[in-house]
Automatic annotation (TrEMBL):
Organism field: Podospora didyma
Classification via PANTHER family: NUCLEOSIDE DIPHOSPHATE KINASE
Membrane-spanning residues: 49-68
Record-given protein name: Nucleoside diphosphate kinase
Residue positions binding ATP: 125, 173, 201, 207, 218, 228
């Protein structure tokens, strides 16, 4: 029993110890109360100075904004919309925002634009008529976009042909040329369109069929100069003279092609 009493808890041995422990409460570590007091003082000082710090920051922000806006480069951008933007940023379009539709600019009519009413004289010679090439030759000019304003099948006679080829009268081949042109009917035509004289000569090909490019009338249908199928005016002045020689007043038909808007701008 003596051994058991010697190893028992102190509060069981001395009941006064338990009473003292309940009265004194838990013991705090040394220095804890001093640290808590310091933290409370710091928090109080922070709450005291917070409004002043906020006010100083706001004043500094206003001063910086005024200083930036008074800069000459930025003020010029605000006053002149034509200057290049310095701070302009483009925000990406939102999901429901439709992209801007580009505006189509209408070009003013060019006063130097070549007239679409230029006319040229084209004649299918007797060999072209005899070979049945009137249709294919007309098709070449129509598909290119030219407008037929006059056509007739004629046998003009020797005097008329001599007047037509008056510039070749001194040539050695002149008699043979007149005889050949007077040997059968000739299909005389007036074609109208943009740059009709120059383009018409290109469609016919070179005078010598062997020098004509494939795809031209003479390059596709002729072999010799003496049988080169067709004639075309070589200048606007000569076209006017030839038209006046081959056609009387009132034989031309003035009409508007339904395909004109699809051929010309």
């Amino acid at each position: 029993m003596a051994t058991a009493s010697s190893t028992a808890r102190p509060d069981k041995i001395n009941p006064a110890f338990d009473v003292w422990k309940r009265k004194s409460g838990p013991q705090e570590p040394p220095g804890l109360q001093k640290r808590q007091s310091s933290q409370r003082e710091t928090s109080t000082q922070a709450r005291k100075w917070a409004p002043l710090i906020f006010l100083v920051g706001a004043v500094c922000g206003i001063l910086l904004t005024l200083l930036f806006c008074s800069h000459p480069t930025y003020s010029r951008q605000l006053s002149s919309p034509n200057d290049p933007p310095l701070l302009q940023t483009s925000s990406p379009p939102t999901l429901h925002e439709r992209p801007a539709t580009p505006q189509l600019s209408v070009k003013p009519e060019n006063p130097d634009k070549m007239s679409t009413t230029e006319q040229t004289f084209i004649a299918i010679k007797p060999d072209g008529v005899q070979r049945g090439l009137v249709g294919p030759i007309i098709s070449r000019f129509e598909t290119r976009g030219f407008k037929l304003v006059a056509i007739k099948l004629v046998t003009p006679g020797k005097e008329h042909l001599e007047a037509h080829y008056a510039d070749l009268k001194e040539k050695s081949f002149f008699p043979g040329l007149i005889s050949y042109m007077n040997s059968g009917p000739i299909c005389a035509m007036i074609w109208e369109g943009l740059d009709a004289v120059k383009t018409g000569r290109t469609i016919l090909g070179a005078t010598n069929p062997l020098a004509s490019a494939p795809g031209t009338i003479r390059g596709d249908y002729a072999l010799q100069t003496g049988r080169n199928i067709c004639h075309g005016s070589d200048s606007v002045e000569n076209a006017k003279k030839e038209i006046a020689l081959w056609f009387k007043e009132g034989e031309q038909v003035s009409w508007k092609s339904a395909l004109e808007s699809w051929t010309y701008e």
